[in-house]
Amino acid sequence: MALAVSPLAPTSFPTLPAIKGVRIASHAAGIRYKERTDVFLAELAPSTTVGGVLTQSLTAGAPVEICRTHLKKGRARVLVVNSGNSNTFTGRKGAAVVEATVNAAAQAFSCAPDEVFISSTGVIGEPPPMDKLVDAVPAAQAKLSDDAWADAAAAIMTTDTFPKVATRTAKIDGVTVTLNGICKGSGMIAPDMATMLAYIFTDAVLSAPVVQALLSAAANKSFNCVTVDGDTSTSDTTLMFATGQAAHRLIAAPTDPRLRDFAEKLDDLAIDLAKQLARDGEGATKFVEIRLKGAADNKAARRIAMSIANSPLVKTAIAGEDANWGRIVMAVGKAGERASRDKLSIAVGGVVIAKNGEPVEGYDETPVVTHMKGREILIDVDVGIGIGVATVWTCDLTHGYIDINGSYRT
Amino acid sequence: MALAVSPLAPTSFPTLPAIKGVRIASHAAGIRYKERTDVFLAELAPSTTVGGVLTQSLTAGAPVEICRTHLKKGRARVLVVNSGNSNTFTGRKGAAVVEATVNAAAQAFSCAPDEVFISSTGVIGEPPPMDKLVDAVPAAQAKLSDDAWADAAAAIMTTDTFPKVATRTAKIDGVTVTLNGICKGSGMIAPDMATMLAYIFTDAVLSAPVVQALLSAAANKSFNCVTVDGDTSTSDTTLMFATGQAAHRLIAAPTDPRLRDFAEKLDDLAIDLAKQLARDGEGATKFVEIRLKGAADNKAARRIAMSIANSPLVKTAIAGEDANWGRIVMAVGKAGERASRDKLSIAVGGVVIAKNGEPVEGYDETPVVTHMKGREILIDVDVGIGIGVATVWTCDLTHGYIDINGSYRT
Known about the structure:
CATH topology of the largest domain in chain A: L-amino peptidase D-ALA esterase/amidase
Strand order of the largest sheet of chain A: 13-12-11-14-10-15
CATH superfamily of the largest domain in chain A: L-amino peptidase D-ALA esterase/amidase
Order of helices and strands of chain A: EEEHEHEHHEEEHEHEHHHEEEHEEH
Shape of chain A: globular
Largest sheet of chain A: 6 strands, mixed
Number of strands of chain A: 15
Number of helices of chain A: 11
Number of domains of chain A: 2
Radius of gyration of chain A: 22 Å
Strand content of chain A: 15-25%
Oligomer: homodimer
């Protein structure tokens, strides 16, 4: 099925610069798709440290398991990502494919097997073609370059309608470092301490524990705050690689104050990528930001915001351009977190339409109607209990979602 | 919006017999709908005991709150139910409407106010018209009869496409007693220790604690095992009234062995009604039964089964007649309960298509394809951990759901 580009796609994409210590390539291995690339390979300098945030799914795939194991060492030389087949629920065959790919990469790049990271995304339950994946490693190796980032982001797409990229610079000790990020994801998006596939590269000089701490914090504010359909993937993987090629001195402690600007820019980049996921939600016609305050704590706020963001009734109302705040009340009520029914306030597009547990009589409906007809929907909810806050992003639920997912395998 | 009757509707409905001690009526109060009834009134004999299971929503409506309070006494004389307006998130105005309706009923039937039970279903956040509701009490009282059950079930419908009724008989001490049940619900169906609106009437002679214990047990096996969209209503209410008019001696202890047949028939009736909810799920074209086994315990089994039943990806695949068991794996993995990825087995329509964590090679696809084209879908999942079991019911997710919910208020 050829999908039209999401109407919510960014109107322009940044050109990602080269990052010292990273060489990348994409390749058409013919795993499932025809006439497009489906393998992304990254070669990382020997000084590279790595951190990762992986799916909490109990049916995670073999590639996720190998990442979890290799993250213990915290060093990376090669990343191999394929689209078209998630290598999940594939038993020993799937594990054998991962092992063969790891060994092929370790041999091709003369590194230890536990410095190789693997991700796979696509259909669940079909053993991937081992030879195509193994052969793809030297084939992609021959094409390595410094700056083919847009091609890389395109190679990892499945039902995505646009490649997702972002870049930032930050200062560490007065030295400018660069962060590049790419990700994919459109359906089965409800990351649980992780996302679909996202890779962040930087030339900063950071110990592995620092990379891990920064990435975990950023994922918590970005990928973990986005949902398309409430379905958590078996393959969610976020990895951050720091090649250590910048001119500043090593930062070895997550609490080092020199990290402030970098952490801020990393959060910003991760949020940029996360929003792109929601903007490419399957069948999406509206991008929705939900700002929740007044919860018992931030975690409670996120759970309530996610309950709203995942409610099919809220999402179909938004698709129908209906500011049906009664369904928001319902979603607050079912979230299982403390909320004061009689202090609850809701604003849509900045207009308060319910306050202190009652509809606001005679509020001006015109700007709300106009807002609902737009492509960017803003919902503010105050549950009136405490100081917990959260912002999450999602999209509407449309006929397009059903079209895409009623025929994904045919 | 006029809705076509669900293709999953039962082909015939039982005629419900009169129950000693229950007189019922329906009435067109014009609360929201035109040219149809929207009030259901039941008068109960002075000997009537009552038990209830109510929504766990933290934004429950005023009618739910009054039921919770009145259930403490355990006696009932009048039930007043309206459709068209849920009287939820209506603040002091809504509470005043409930109070006025309770007082009107207490006066009309010469009973204590805490023997009156109220339910409301429909739009959230609009104060209901007090005069129409209060006036409906004597108007409906004038129409009371013994056997207008189908009319009663029709009066409480919202987006339902058919009235939902069921009847059973049971023996207590050799005496035949009757159970009648009616319910409504089509969207916002994910009961949490409760259901949408369901009312069960019997002439059995039971203490209020017995009624409560039996109803709680039955709800757990029926209404709490059905989901349409994972959205828990603010108004879910199940009440059971026992008029005490049958000729057997009072049963005062939930553990009395004379209850065995009655409890069995009650469970069966509640399951019958619960399945009718799924069969009338908004936009449903397929009825889905999910049988889960091998979980750590029954509660874990239900959570995993519900995770499958609520997954939009599973539900759209079923709508597309695709036995996409990979999405079932995903839904098991995200449920947050223990499951053995490498022992997981899945059967569709009785055909095992995945076993011990791998697809079954060369299984006969033909009967599976045929099964998926049918209206009744059966999914068996074994998660390979323990002896916990659960059966839940749901429906597919189709364009119809989005049509209905994108325009509910227009």
